[in-house]
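Lest this sound abstract, we let one protein speak, letters for residues, whole numbers for local backbone shapes, and leave readers to judge:
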Amino acid sequence: MSTMTPRERVLTALQLKEPDRVPWVEGYVHKALGEKILGRPIPDPPGSARTAPEILEVLAIDNISYNFAPPRYAEIEKRGDIEIVGAGKLKTWQDFEECKKKMPDPGAAEFYKPAEEYLKKYRKDYAALAGVRFGPSNTYLSMGIEHFSYMLFDDPDLVDAIMDMFSSFSLRVLEVIQNMDFDVIFVSDDLAFRSGTFISPKHMERFFMPHMRKVAAKIEKPWIYHSCGNINSILDELLTLGMNGISNLEPGPMDIFQLKKDYGNKVCLMGNIDLHYTLSKGTVEETENEVREKIHRVGPGGGYIIATSNGVAAYCKPENIMAMNNALLKYGHYPL
């Protein structure tokens, strides 16, 4: 029997304590998959919300989320309900100056009105997450990863200027949203492939970390940091930013059982339910087994939030997401 609200459950786990059950937090649930699970059409999520509220009728997810990330200035290709980020548009100083004129104004009251209406209607007792960015991913996507890599050497000042534009945007957003009815700040910036980080630790410290520290220093609420890929080599440095949780811990490069041993008393671990195979290609039985194992090996003592390894994607099997849901409710109640 649940004794906590979803909000209390999530915040307890982020404090490295045991809630009534392991919380379930997702950055998004894709609308197309939500429709398959519900068996009916559903409206688009309102504003920049990441999950249609209707899906919470059937999944025991403990959060809602709203996205305040700055725009990406790149070619975006829609393949069904999946966005493919293509060529970046910020190649020169002239491109940068034109981009600054197009950036939304994070100081404008109307920028936040859709979020205020969303919270008023759907907040209830869910943990409300506000999504922001540090700046690196918007920079390399807007420049294009290959051009970005050349510019690290050919024009580092341009890289710094673009990254400062995006990180400054997030700083101004934080000034507002931390006075709104959000519980958790969710910072998403991919820094790695499965094989390792995009750039060397030397360049990470030179270009990324100053902007990341600047934004992190202004976060006053509990917060979670997300990166895909293998971040083992920079994890100790990332933890100096002071996050309460780290997600989504991609299976394969990130061994969550070893992370529990090494970091379980320092930071809440979130995610690691496999999108590459289990939820997209596996069976209901395999899904239940993986969820049970993660709960029983990572959950004891608290400090674990269950989640997919990058959001509930459109290509997941609906029956496997329901199996994840049912396994959580079956095995996730404390004491484990």
